[in-house]
Amino acid sequence: MRFQNPAEETAMPTYRIMDADGNIVDNTRDPQSASDEEIVRWYRNMLTISILDLLMFDAQRQGRTSFYMVSAGEEGIAVGSASALTPDDVIFLQYREQGVLLQRGFTLKEMMSQLFANKDDHGKGRNMPVHYGSGKLNVHTVSSPLATQIPQASGAAYALKLQRLINPNVPPRVVACYFGEGAASEGDFHAALNIAATKSCPVVFVCRNNGFAISTSSIEQYKGDGIASRGLGYGIDTIRVDGNDIFAVREVMAEARKRALEGDCRPILVEAMSYRVSHHSTSDDSFAYRAKREVEEWKRRDNPITRLRKWMEKKGIWDEDKEKEARASIRKEVLQEFSAAEKVKKPPLRAMFEDVYEEITPEAREQMQELKRLIEKYPKEYSSISQYEGGGCAPDPALGRSVDIDFSSGASSDFTPSGAVSYTSDGAAFTISQHGDAPTIQSKWYIMFGHVDYVIKASPGTGIVSAAVLQSDCLDEIDWEWLGGDDNQAQSNYFGKGQTTTGYNRGAYHGAPNNHEEFHTYSIDWTADQIVWSIDGQTVRAMSPSQAEAGQFPQTPMFVKLGTWAGGDSSNPPGTITWSGGPTDYSAGPFTMYVKSLHVTDYSSGSQYTYSGTSGTWQSITSNGGQINSQGDGVPPSSGSAPPATSSVPNSGAPLAFGNGGDSSGSATRTGWPWSGEATATIVSSLISTFPPSSQSSSAVLSQGSPSASASFEITTSYDQQGFPTVVTVNPAASATPTCFDTHGFPTACAATVVPVSNQPATTQAPGQPTVTISGTPNPGTASPAPSSVGVASGASSAPASSPAISGSTPTGVSVSTGTTGNTVPNSSVSVVPSLGGSSTGTQPVATATSGVNSPGSSTNTASAVPTSGTAPESSSATPSETVITSNGSTFTLSATPSQSLVTTNGSTFTLSVISSTTSAGSSTTASTTRHSTTLSTTSHTSGRASTTSPSSSSTASGTPPAPSNAAARSTTSKAICLIVAMCTLLLLH
């Protein structure tokens, strides 16, 4: 009879390609499977998430938004995994996957609309901030209840499998489901894995193990070898990956997707190891349950953004100038979208009763009327009854007349510019020189039916899009567009009420020779009876309401907008890039569209156009001080009466294959449209961090040097609201090796001797503090990796015993120490705590330890400590010559000795680089505490017997000791949910 002991099992290795310094540690894995442009796009997406997080966190603190959740430290998991998926794959998110959305084409405008719950929000403002979703991107909306998306993902994957059984011609698709290790403690997790395994569902479960479930650390959450070990218990192929290594995450996800679709399909579990360097949310203060220096060390030592940046710099595709440009342009774009979204009106209040049932119930109708009466009774408490009826479409200032604008004479006060618009003898110049440029101008007035003549010379350049548009606040739209790679055609298009996702079949091409070299007059004549597009006075297309898609004929007040944007920018989805003509080569620029002049006639009159109802029809629009003229005969257009209607797509214009921004499946959106608003806006002063008041949250600092091992130094650090360091000061007496800190306080170059750990508040080392030196003692033989231990100097600045250690390594055979030389401190104590994710096989390490501080020259007493068996509390402390017991049962005997070395100020923590482990059979090994292995290893179950592929280099896996392999109790309710979701999804797909 033999019981299996988890401590006797080998911990699952962690797959890694690139180390924390940006070096490729496994040369057999070539990250060059992706192009330089694609890698730069990943990096920019991670930067975008980081900058967005910083600004939105501060915005919530100022009351600009109600709630926010940060993804700092986990950007590589989201972006890397999403880069390996196809647009057809189905996604279930938790709430730290903004990178998945960006990678799939979700725009900052869409994100801001959701965060501000305005009328452009896909969810109509009904959900909490950060609860994104996108039908066109196959991303299910985030839900607040923890883990509910996991069984839903299993059900959806089963439906996809059944769909292919019914129709083998359907492209193979997988479901990717994201969640944290906290959600893995819910019963839904176990039910979902069980049904996915038994039904062989093509689903990839991606668990972000960031060390904390809100305030509960992994050590307190579960026993066992992390989350990955649970997959084996359900017979699921499983792998653990370094979540800070975007190359490793991408490769693992690509392989997982491939395996999920093999044969009869199967589920895959991926555990991505990271560290949550942010607070759980704006409702949380993580420094109440973890040390700030622990967070600072993680941010300095290892994070996915700086790791990839180091690799790109070594490869020569990135430098400091590009970094500054990227951060500046991204920050500018985020602030533009922030400012624009904050001003957009909210959805109608009545919308809270809609979209639940096909027919609104009598009870709901009664509640709607009660709300309406309440608003009418207390007008001072509500903006107006139109907030109930019309929602986001506020009254619009009317043009009510005709205007002629000559841009060759300079800027017009009738228009608001956004971005760098200049004026020459050729007119208004809209120039694109680099990523992020999208210059536009927009009229300050609206027309309600009318005529517009644009005199335009379109911009050349592959991937560059020139545009002249009429657009309403309620997203009615009539367009002219030109592609920089096509000098012979123009495109006409229209949209109604923002319906841009129904096939993109409304556009048409029209002959327009030499549109890049010559000015042409492009006209739109718009009445209630028809829309007519003309080029140089010749009608090329006309459309009546009956010829438009049902209910999509534009008929609400419109402003005039002109500008250019880069549809071929690498940040856009593949479909948008294809539609625009291909990738934009900015080095071939600049690219400029010229608008010489503009004539606009408003067929209606008055000073303001108001929405009187929710129908969205022109009959619901009223004029203040004038009248709505739907026929255009009251004020005839300068070019004469409107031409007669012809066909909806005349012979001169071929149907547009993908429409504006269609992807290869014809279903993507024009992510570059509408353009970013208000590009000229400077930084919003109220968004600047006010904590501390003297520094900005993105202050960049260059230190005077890094200390040598014998130099004394001090660090003064100020922190913003997220705990990011904003000011770092190093004593000038330190050595001259410079250390640069980027805008997040991460070091970009570090001295080889030591990386300082800053304390907050700043501390000055008092003489006589204890010094601890701990060294590994290797034994011959081989065995499994053993856990690390961390020395923490005792005293006022020492870390709590439960504080997780910072994993990492120092060179083999090198000891580490902390403290200062000085007077003798009798009976100084030492705490030994386990490192984050430590696990072991057999008995515990053999090591020597010295403790105490005497004046220089005193005698040294050193004792070797051999581990003993047994268990103990989380940690203990002891005076010299007594025993210290770690949480995993090992013991160390400490004795006093002088120390003459100084590494850092008191309170720093280190991880041993060399540890020995002895197995039950008596053999031993020396193992590095380096956290991740370098070989892809998957563990699967075949016929109930575990089969493990071991890595080529040993390592200590992340996580806690191995978990029992038996499956958790199954949830009948959750399994039923899986089947219901599967059948419903199948019916929709079929």
From TrEMBL:
Residues 622-632, 760-782, 844-884 have a biased composition (Polar residues). Residues 634-650, 783-843 have a biased composition (Low complexity). Pfam families: E1_dh (PF00676), Glyco_hydro_16 (PF00722). InterPro entries: Alpha-ketoacid_DH_E1_comp, Beta-glucanase-like, ConA-like_dom_sf, DH_E1, THDP-binding. PROSITE patterns: GH16_2. GO terms for cellular component: mitochondrial matrix. Keywords: Metal-binding, Mitochondrion, Oxidoreductase, Potassium, Transit peptide. Transmembrane segments: none annotated. It is found in: Mitochondrion matrix. Residues 296-595 form the GH16 domain. GO terms for molecular function: branched-chain 2-oxo acid dehydrogenase activity; hydrolase activity, hydrolyzing O-glycosyl compounds; metal ion binding. The keyword Lyase does not apply. Its EC number is 1.2.4.4. Residues 622-674, 760-884, 919-969 are annotated as: Disordered. GO terms for biological process: branched-chain amino acid catabolic process; carbohydrate metabolic process. Its cofactor is thiamine diphosphate. Belongs to the BCKDHA family. This is 3-methyl-2-oxobutanoate dehydrogenase (2-methylpropanoyl-transferring). It comes from Cladophialophora chaetospira.
